[in-house]
Write a structure and sequence with these properties.
The structure is a single chain. The chain is α/β, with parallel strands linked by helices. The chain has 6 helices and 8 strands. Helix 5 links the parallel strand 2 and strand 3.
Amino acid sequence: MNHSPTAAAVSLLARNLGRVLAADEAGLLSAYLGLLVKWNARMNLVGPTSWQQMLETLVQDSWHLADLLAGLPAQPGETLDLGAGAGLPGIPLRVFWRSGDYFLVEPRQKRAIFMEQAVMVMKLPRTRVLCCRMEALPPARRRADLIVSRAFKPWRALLEEVRGLLGPGGRVLVMSNEALPAGEVDGYGLELARDYAVAGRKRFLWLFVLGGKGLGEVGHE
């Protein structure tokens, strides 16, 4: 049987994974993981079934992403998280990084309801759930500064399809389990590329900028 974690237990496991959590961060993550375990037993939201597995294999991505985004010289005013599913990486990301307005876009109603409850329980500021397909986003949501995607679509198809959702100089953050292949992407420049380890395997973050040129930084963590 899976149990909801305490903030102390979450803090201890995160420390073992190399992340020191502030008290409020540990409390918020414990609330999210407790909800995710409970709902996952009924809806099969994610593959892992224990909160420990969820933290190590899913939530851990969010603090690496938060560190990358916090280091950007220009912080986005509006972010779209496409295919947000169970709120990963977006809901844990907002524990660590709260710049601008963040929209979790998910067409499946039950998943959207789960995210709405999590956002409400955690009292995450400037974080909203939009239950719709990407193509049905209203005009007001079609000038994003940043788009985040975690395996929502193949990354080249994603870059092509989200052009109309980005404002001038907008960025797209791609999360991948594979290294970036060689070759340019029409209309985008690769601004940042970083890798990090989760459960002994490398994962990758690529930040593309619309109309940009060249590679600004390649980092390893």
